[in-house]
Amino acid sequence: MSDEGVLDPAPTTLEPTKPLVSPGRSIADGTRSWRRVRPWVVLLVVVAVASMLVRAFVVQTFYIPSGSMEPTLWPGQGILVDKLAAEFGTIHTGDVIVFHASPAVAQDCAQATPDLVKRVIGLPGQTLYSEGNTIYVDYRPLAQPWPHAGPLEPAIGAPQSPIVVPPGQYFVLGDNEPTSCDSRYWGFVPRSAIIGKVAWRVWPLSAFGGV
Q1: What is the pTM for the complete model shown?
Q2: Residues labelled as active-site residues
Q3: Per-residue pLDDT tens for 101-136?
Q4: Would you list the DSSP string of 141-200?
Q5: Are the C-beta atoms of 188 and 99 separated by less than 8 Å?
């Protein structure tokens, strides 16, 4: 019988199976690399979480936007605010605090700012008024050992009609008394609005120090 027209089946050639891992790099190598990197990843996560917790509950930085606290704080200075001092401590006369601004601030002072920094002058239950450049607290002159600029205008109440600070609230004043928009205009600061006490000036470095 003739074999013409009949093709012999070609021998089947099997391609070598490609390895799952490229030559020179084994699964063990990848595991060792991850083991080397893992501590750094964990460290970065811990640092990030710790930073968020510190900012939320311990300290926070702010920048001074205006001259209302001159000569104590100047525009552009960075300050460090101690949140724990306000949360668990006591607010005293003379403390410089940062607090959430009430809606009245934008209305009475034309300042669309979420937070303000001022000095505590009156505590809950105290009676306040001023004559000339002297502030009277419970009918006694207030000693002001901190630097501040006068004249004290507008006045704080009057001898015949003093201001009484409500329970749980504070009367605050800017150290730059003639230009500061403070409790004389928009009222008191509730304890719940206080973010913390200003502890340090941290920027610029030439101004570093306590407040």
Answers
A1: 0.74
A2: 68, 118
A3: 988 888 888 777 889 999 999 999 999 999 999 999
A4: EPP--S--B----S-SSBTTB-EEPPTTEEEEE-SBTTT--SHHHH--EEGGGEEEEEEE
A5: no
